[in-house]
């Protein structure tokens, strides 16, 4: 063996172990980092974790908006249907009026997170130079129970274009405090924060119709 080869072997043998371990650890760390950057197995899970709340929020909002629109339409149909049934009668009784109110309440189903309110008022415009608008009879359905509403003989306000002397009107008012799913819970007492802005959305409609079968629609026991 030549002197040069002996010198090279001696130099390699005498190299300290610490730097070699450092370089080896650095190479392994670099290889691990390179493998981590190429790994794609958990990307889908991370993306789903970010996007899932947004998708769920969009789903519930779109569902709630569509249901609120449908319930608002039903509130309008309650008023028109009840008024139509009353004005087709020549005379009614308290039990008949209450039955019609119950039919009106059933239109809101399957929505049941809050109870609607329906008021039927028979109105007489007096035959005077300055006509008065007086209540003949009035019934309401509220919280599932029927009862008297406005007192007979009391005065009410109607649109001026309907204030015609010696005429009879039937007014039906339907109301509902809409409770969205996102703010409603069984036994809920109070809603706070941002949810309070969506709690109890007021929906209401008012219809006036004239009798069809007779000049008036009296109710003997209302």
Folded structure, characterized:
With 222 residues, the protein is α+β, with helices and mostly antiparallel strands. The chain has a domain at 61-209. The chain has four helices and five strands. It has helices spanning 3-13, 17-38, 43-87, 94-106, and strands at residues 117-125, 133-142, 145-148, 167-178, 201-209. The protein has a five-stranded antiparallel β-sheet with strand order 3-2-1-4-5, with helices on one face. Strand 2 (133-142) and strand 3 (145-148) form a beta hairpin. Helix 3 runs antiparallel to helix 4 (94-106). The chain is rod-shaped and about 110 Å long.
SSE layout and pairing:
Elements: H1 3-13, H2 17-38, H3 43-87, H4 94-106, E1 117-125, E2 133-142, E3 145-148, E4 167-178, E5 201-209
Number of beta-strand segments = 5
Report the total helices. 4
Q: How much of the sequence is in beta strands? A: 15-25%
For the largest sheet, list the strands in their spatial order: 3-2-1-4-5
Rg of Cα set: 39 Å
């Amino acid at each position: 063996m030549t002197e040069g080869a002996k010198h090279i072997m001696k130099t390699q043998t005498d190299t300290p172990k610490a730097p070699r371990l450092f370089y080896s650890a650095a190479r392994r760390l670099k290889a691990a980092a390179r493998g981590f950057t190429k790994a794609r197995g958990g990307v889908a899970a991370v993306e789903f974790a970010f996007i899932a709340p947004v998708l769920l929020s969009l789903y519930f909002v779109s569902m709630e908006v569509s249901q609120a629109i449908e319930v608002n339409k039903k509130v309008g149909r309650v008023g028109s249907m009840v008024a139509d049934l009353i004005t087709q009668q020549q005379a009614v009784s308290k039990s008949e009026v209450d039955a019609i109110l119950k039919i009106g309440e059933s239109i809101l189903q399957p929505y049941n997170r809050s109870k609607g309110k329906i008021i039927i008022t028979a109105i007489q415009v007096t035959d005077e130079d300055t006509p008065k608008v007086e209540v003949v009879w009035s019934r309401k359905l509220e919280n599932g129970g029927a009862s008297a509403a406005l007192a007979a003989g009391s005065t009410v306000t109607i649109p001026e274009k309907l204030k015609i002397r010696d005429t009879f009107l039937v007014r039906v008012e339907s109301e509902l405090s809409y409770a969205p799913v996102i703010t409603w819970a069984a036994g809920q007492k109070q809603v706070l924060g941002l949810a309070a802005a969506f709690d109890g959305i007021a929906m209401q409609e008012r219809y006036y119709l004239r009798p069809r079968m007779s000049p008036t629609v009296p109710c003997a026991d209302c």
